[in-house]
Task: structure prediction
Amino acid sequence: MLPTSTDVLVVGAGPTGLATALTLARRGIDVTVLDQQAEPATTSRAAVVHAYTLEVLDRIGAAAPLVAQGVRSPRFTVRDRDRLLLSVPFHELPSRFPYALLVSQAVTETVLTERLTDLGVRVRRPCRLTGLEVTADGVLAQIDGEAPLRARYVVGADGLHSTVRQAAGIGFNGLSDAESFVLADVRVDSALPTEEVALFLARSGPLVWAPLPDGVVRLVAAVETAPAEPDVEYLQRLLDERGPARRPDRVTEVLWGSRFRVHHRIADTFRAGPVLLAGDAGHVHSPAGGQGMNLGICDAVALGTAVADVLDGGPESLLDDYTARQRPMAEDVLSFAAGLTRLAAVPPARRPARDVLLRLLGALPPARRKVALRLSGLSHRERTPS
Result:
């Protein structure tokens, strides 16, 4: 079969791939999106979109429709059972979006897909990339069962086991041990605020409690061995061990549950000639702080903008600028997420000191502001051009 052609091939149709494609399409770039899944996912891990990510999404016309479908959270709290250790306010953030938006990743993907479809770009499914060959004018992509595809650039947004990254020979290094997590969307009788994300620090590990629209609560917990399909009894035990004690939560229904393992790894580079990486293809880490999808979307818009500028006549060095800017951000997020996870795992003898430290941070407005800027992603704003 004779090759077809496109300006940019994006592999992967999660939030990162979709945001990359949308950024390019809005600039009039011919973009093709492939995904090996036959249908979009209807369940998801990520459940929070932070303020800086909303600013980035606003540049590509996706913030307003997403905000309309989410819960605006004005604060993030850290708790040890019934004790409030730290309250991080978002309502004072220097942003047009002074909150964390609680919304399922599936909704985020739907919004991005709809905007992409409006521009005439549809995701090709199921399409499996089997190989890449760098040529004099770009890349020749081999696609299982279809004609090869020539592209000036290829973007790997295909996750932890990225075919693009492996085909480009880019190293992916970090800790060899993976953390095990359980995740579930539940209905629960609870006295906790319905618009507030809470991180519970417990001896057995952290538990994230995040309210979503329609009375749903997302639970994420680090556990030693997670069941494939967590049930009411299992999740109730987690809440009894780690959640509120005086007015305990009661799980009444499990809407969806799963397990996953997370490595802490980062790609050696985000660029190898005409091959570029974004999102989980370039960096993976603990879900603590809800940073993963957010960083991936920020990668996507930065990368899409850089590629579009080059195709419009800008210097190739803009692509080196992308990796030079985004990779340190990824290292910073990996360190931050790992630190949040370690907070929950301190030995019992050190927990009183940890709790005192968090309370001191909560009592100091400059410290609260610094944590809010870090969680919201706004501390990275100056590293990414508008």
